[in-house]
Amino acid sequence: MQLYSSSSVASSSVVQSLYCSAELTRFPRTELVPAYVRLLRDNEAEVRIAAAGKVTKFSRILSPELAIQHILPCVKELSTDSSQHVRSALASVIMGMAPVLGKDATIEQLLPIFLSLLKDEFPDVKLNIISKLDQVNQVIGIDLLSQSLLPAIVELAEDRQWRVRLAIIKYIPLLASQLGVGFFDDKLGALCMQWLKDKVYSIRDAAANNVKRLAEEFGPEWAMQHIIPQGSNLDINWYLNEVMTRVYKSEFKLWFSYKCCRY
Question: What is the model's pTM?
């Protein structure tokens, strides 16, 4: 089997062939691991991109012990690869390794890699990590999430790249349901309202939808306490049209309408 090629098409084909061989157990999987490791450490970026995109799938067909011993060291190297496209390919799949490796290995070895990729200078790397954060939540638990990932999430909420801010906004409702209303208000509530004043319309629009989803998650009393008073700090016409209308259309609209009239 030819393992090296500068062609991205050929590289993908080689990696896919190796994965299929391991998956179909045509060869002992332990014998294929060294070949895959060589691909992950290949001199050609195209080969590393193709190989990085398969780290989770390859780990799934190995035992956790083999993945931790042989694949994780390569993953750590790839997380600081000189090619942003290699890092992006890795970021798009690495979160899926958490359920494969288990809680201890995820906390001790994988989590530091997640955090480093969340601080990558290339926006697509951060976006790929953010889009799969829920896979890690299920493994490490909300307590550890709040201690480790939450500070990074708060930092990304003010990222200079609007696409990164948008990705964080879309992740917030899921995070809110796991954190609970008290912890959410303390750590993330102000950020959600801050996005309503963002200079980018797409962010404000997503933030308005976000507020509606949060109101549905936390209930009408929370909405009354946190949403209505914001009108005094924003353009009132935009706020009424874009935010309040969406909240009004939520599942408790009759109750909310009654309260708004009284307010």
Answer: 0.72
CB 51 within 8 A of CB 34: no
User: Residue 80 has which token pair?
Assistant: 């600081």
pLDDT in tens, 181-194: 887 788 788 888 78
Radius of gyration of the chain (CA): 22
Q: Are 58 and 37 in contact (CB under 8 A)?
A: no
Length of the chain: 263
Residue 247 parent element (H or E): helix 245-248
Cβ-contact 33, 62 below 8 angstroms: yes
3-state secondary structure of 188: coil
Residue type, 217: E
SS3 35: helix
Alpha-carbon gap, residue 207 to 169, rounded angstroms? 7
Of 73-82, 92-101, 205-214, which one has max mean pLDDT?
73-82
Q: What is the pLDDT of residues 94-110, one digit of tens each?
A: 989 988 898 899 889 99
Which of 102, 159, 103 is CA-nearest to residue 126?
Answer: 159
Query: Residues 155-184: pLDDT tens digits?
Result: 888 888 998 899 888 888 877 877 778 877
CA separation (Å) from 54 to 57, 146, 210, 262?
A: 5, 29, 33, 57
Q: How many CB atoms lie within 10 A of CB 43?
A: 8
DSSP letters spanning 113-176:
HHHHHHT-SSHHHHHHHHTTHHHHHHHH-HHHHHHHHHHHHHHHTT-SSHHHHHHHHHHHHHHH
The answer to whether the Cα torsion of 53, 178, 233, 254 is positive or negative is positive
The one-letter code for the residue type at 173 is: P
